[in-house]
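Dear support,

Our group has been running a series of protein-ligand predictions, and this particular one with adenosine-5'-diphosphate is the one our PI (initials K.S.) wants archived with full inputs and outputs. We had some confusion internally about which version of the output was final, so please treat the block below as the authoritative record. The input we submitted was:
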Amino acid sequence: MRIICIGECMVEMAPLDNAGTYRMGFAGDTLNTAWYLARLLGDRAEVGYFTAVGTDGVSDQMLDFLGSARIDTSFVLRRADRTLGLYMIQLQNGERSFSYWRSHSAARTLAQSGGDIAATLQGAGIACFSGITLAILPPEDRATLSRALEDFRSAGGTVVFDPNLRPKLWADPKDMTQAIMDAAGLSDIVLPSHEDESTWFGDQTPEDTAKRYAQKGAGIVVVKNGPGEIVVHSDTGLSHHQPEHVSNVVDTTAAGDSFNAGFLSSHIAGASLDQAIATGAKLAARVVTHRGALVEEAVLGNELAG
Ligand code: ADP
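Confirmed final output from the archive:
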């Protein structure tokens, strides 16, 4: 099984103290999911990342980082006139805030050619993308990506979509909601978070979110809701699942991304929907007890992959 995640991986600058010392890392929603998938699946699957990066040193460093995480980067596009997007985390009175430099990142050019995407997806079983992947693309490139994903699906591939709504990345919230629903319409599995969805789609309950995406044709919709009940819509209708209780939440960064990886790793291994959701929730529960997006400790041991 080959799984391709499509999107943007950024440089992350995280403060180590209050004296201006930062640690450089790499993160981004679809990359976080790829990273956890590679960890969970080991030799049982090949995980690849599709994006565009620069030809500079930091871009090389990012590809080395992905490679060392056993993520295949052989299809990543190189752009001589661009580089990676970057974000910086500020800590003020214990609260984290984020500043972004990503408006001209190389990743914004990832879908200029449908041929590049088709070549990457050739032979893959699963393609994962998100609302952030869509948000960073010019409209014509968004259409190119959609066509490539439609072709992939027609050829038997499974398309997985996390809406990950980020209104700040869109010129107009209406563009966002339209693009998100269009993308859901070409996806087999949709993995939204209810809190975001209620704000921008007016869903009163997680059930509303699940039904709205199911009506667009997704066979499986898993609605995450922080510590709240997870609501699923599948061919057997609606079901409810309690995530693990976590008493010591430290940082919820990548909760949803890691959930997606846990869920998918289990789903493709042939587990039941119940088991796959439990695996996703278990991984996310571990991730939120640590600082940062990519938490080694959360995936130690193999029991999560079952
Ligand atoms: P996102 O990061 O996309 O906003 P959510 O916050 O909905 O996603 O969380 C995704 C999953 O992570 C939840 O379904 C749950 O399994 C787990 N999770 C998130 N926050 C908590 C929490 N406070 N306690 C326990 N589990 C959590």
